[in-house]
Structure formats: C-alpha cells, structure tokens
C-alpha cells in the first residue's frame, strides 16, 4: 500500500503542472487583463470589459500604448510601470516558471487589487465555504443513509414509491431557485420573517453568550445549508438503496437468515458494512463537491462572503494571483482527497488492495 500511495503522490506533480499550463495558456488570450482593469478605473469606467465592446473606440489616441484600449492620453512610461508592477514586462514562459517556482515554496503572491496575500485572503473567506460544505454533507448523509436503508427494506411498497418521487422532485429543483423560494417564504420576502436575510452572524454577535452565539450561528446558516443540500439527497439516497439491495440478494445474507438471525442482525451486522463501503468511502469526494459546487450562487443569494464570491470577483477583476493561487490550492486538495478516498476504501474493507491491482 505504501508504494501505491507514493505513486499517487508523485502523480500529483505532473497533474498540477498540466492544470496550471492549460489555465495559464488560456488566460493569455483573455481580454481585459489587470493593466486594462487599472486603466478602466482611472477613466472611471469601472470595468475594462466595457471598453472591449468598442465604447470610446472612435476617440483619437493621445499618447499611451495602443495595445490597451484604455491607455489613451496616458504616457507610455506609466503603462510600462504598470506592466512592471504586475510582472508583464517578462515573457509569458518566464512568468509561468517563476509562478511554478513560487508555488513549490507555497508562495502564492499578493492580490493585485486588495494588498493582501492570497493565502490570507483564502483563509479569510474559507470559514463560510467550509460551513456550507461541511453542514450540507453531514445533513445529507444523516438523512439519506437511513432513508436509503428504509427504502431498500420496503422496496416496491408505497413508501418506496412516494419517497422516490419526492427526492427526484427535490433533485430537479435548481439550488438557486430553491434558495430564492426560501428567502421569499421565510426571510421576509413576502410571508414570514423567521430567518435572517444575509450573513453568518448578527451585528451583536460578540456581545452574546456562548449559547447565544451557537444559536445565532445556527439561525443564520439554516436557509443557506438547506438550499445547498436539497440536490444531494437524491444521489445519496438512491445509492444507499441500490447498494443495500445488491447485498441483500447475495448468498451470505440467505445463509445468515437460514441460521435463524433476526432481520436487524442480518441487516446491520452483515449487510451494513459491505453496503456502506462505497457510500462512506466517497465522503471526502462528496464534501469537496459540495464545498466547490454551487457555492457561488448560494453565497451570492444569501450575501455570504466566501470562496465562491472570491473566485468570481477575482475572475471579473483579472486578479491573476488569486485565480491561480486558489486554482492550485483547490486542485491539490482535490487530488489529495482522491488518495484519501482510496485509503478509506482499504480502511473499511481490508480485502481491497490497490497495490496488488496495480
């Protein structure tokens, strides 16, 4: 197993390099870079993308650099100084290798527009995204596993039929639409003012007691967590049901029943461990998928300042250190989670040997 883990760890290096090469190359062809963003702000336009569409294109150039749409009337020295500050005075290949060398030392640089290191910025926004991802994953498992087991036991009954219809309808509802519905119904949109409209804590959070802080925190995260969890129930529930059904039909279950064991002993003493192998081992991957997927929309609707909002703003502003730093960090996390999932398979079922399979 040690050799397998070592191979997987070594494969992370070329995989990360490949991801960074592809994204760095794509960025070179995207208009409206950091220099254009600064020039657009100096002109009061606010966004360089407004100039790309051709607005102001008929104005005569009065100096500046013709490579930039917003450089009219600005001295070339100013443009060169901007390029030097952003590192664009170097060839793309040299910039790429400088970036890789810095990332190998876990030096992700500083945000172009916030005067804060990328690591500090990610750590500042991460609690919000971890809150959504962790609570959504835990709640999905707590609901889906018992429901899936019950559906497997009651396979073909009316309970199985109407619960399947319910979770499929829930799966079909887009997360953002369900989030808006929750706001309208329970956050003072048109009906009841039960939950707060935005944020993770109240303004007087620091003045509350320990129990008051816990209650305030849970009060704020209820609607965002429900909105981000709604689509997770269907996959996990049906996966649990099908996994249990497959195990129930196997020979060892019939043998256990023939020995006179109760249905509960058969189900939870024999079937549970084998049936839950895929479900429990996939927990890290499910958490990461919930952690990344849909966070932007949920954070925007509920005014939560997390990693989703950070990534969106960085892409709009062309804040390349934040874009590449978070991309590197999340890619590394995803690859490590893949290894962790394999280790959980072996931990749950020691009969699995990835090294021998390799």
Automatic annotation (TrEMBL):
SUPFAM superfamilies: MetI-like (SSF161098). It comes from the Bacteria. It is found in: Cell membrane. Keywords: Cell membrane, Membrane, Transmembrane, Transmembrane helix, Transport. GO terms for cellular component: plasma membrane. Its main location: membrane. The chain crosses the membrane at residues 9-30, 128-149, 161-187, 217-240, 277-302, 322-348. Pfam families: BPD_transp_1. CDD domains: TM_PBP2 (cd06261). The keyword Cell membrane applies. InterPro entries: MetI-like, MetI-like_sf. GO terms for biological process: microcin transport; transmembrane transport. Residues 126-345 form the ABC transmembrane type-1 domain. It is a multi-pass membrane protein. Belongs to the binding-protein-dependent transport system permease family. PANTHER family: INNER MEMBRANE ABC TRANSPORTER, INNER MEMBRANE ABC TRANSPORTER PERMEASE PROTEIN YEJB. This is Microcin C ABC transporter permease YejB.
């Amino acid at each position: 197993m040690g050799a397998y883990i070592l191979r997987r760890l070594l494969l992370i290096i070329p995989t990360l390099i490949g991801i960074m090469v592809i994204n760095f190359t794509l960025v070179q062809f995207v208009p409206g870079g950091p220099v254009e963003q600064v020039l657009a702000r100096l002109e009061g336009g606010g966004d360089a993308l407004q100039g790309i569409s051709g607005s102001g294109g008929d104005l005569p150039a009065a100096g500046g650099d013709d490579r930039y749409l917003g450089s009219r009337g600005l001295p070339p020295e100013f443009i060169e100084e901007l390029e030097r500050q952003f590192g664009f005075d170097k060839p793309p290949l040299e910039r790429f290798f400088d970036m890789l060398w810095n990332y190998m030392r876990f030096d992700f640089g500083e945000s172009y527009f916030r005067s804060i290191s990328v690591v500090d910025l990610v750590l500042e926004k991460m609690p919000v995204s971890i809150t959504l991802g962790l609570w959504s994953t835990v709640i999905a498992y707590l609901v889906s596993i018992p429901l899936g087991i019950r559906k497997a036991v009651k396979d073909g009954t009316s309970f199985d039929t109407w619960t399947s219809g319910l979770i499929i309808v829930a799966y079909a509802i887009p997360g953002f639409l369900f989030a808006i519905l929750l706001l309208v119904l329970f956050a003072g949109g048109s009906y009841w003012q039960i939950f707060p409209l935005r944020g993770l804590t109240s303004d007087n959070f620091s003045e509350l007691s320990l129990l008051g802080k816990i209650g305030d925190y849970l009060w704020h995260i209820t609607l965002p967590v429900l909105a981000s969890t709604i689509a997770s129930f269907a996959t996990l529930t049906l996966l649990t049901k099908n996994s249990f059904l497959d195990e129930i039909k196997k020979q060892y279950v019939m043998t256990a029943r023939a020995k006179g064991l109760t249905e509960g002993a058969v189900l939870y003493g024999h079937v549970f461990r084998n049936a839950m192998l895929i479900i429990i081992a996939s927990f890290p991957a499910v958490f990461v998928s919930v952690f990344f997927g849909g966070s932007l929309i949920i954070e925007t609707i509920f005014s939560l300042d997390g990693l989703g909002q950070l990534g969106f703003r960085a892409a709009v502003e062309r804040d390349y250190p934040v874009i590449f730093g978070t991309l590197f960090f999340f890619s590394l996390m995803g690859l490590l989670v893949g290894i962790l999932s394999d280790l959980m398979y072996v931990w749950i079922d020691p009969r699995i040997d990835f090294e021998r399979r390799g």
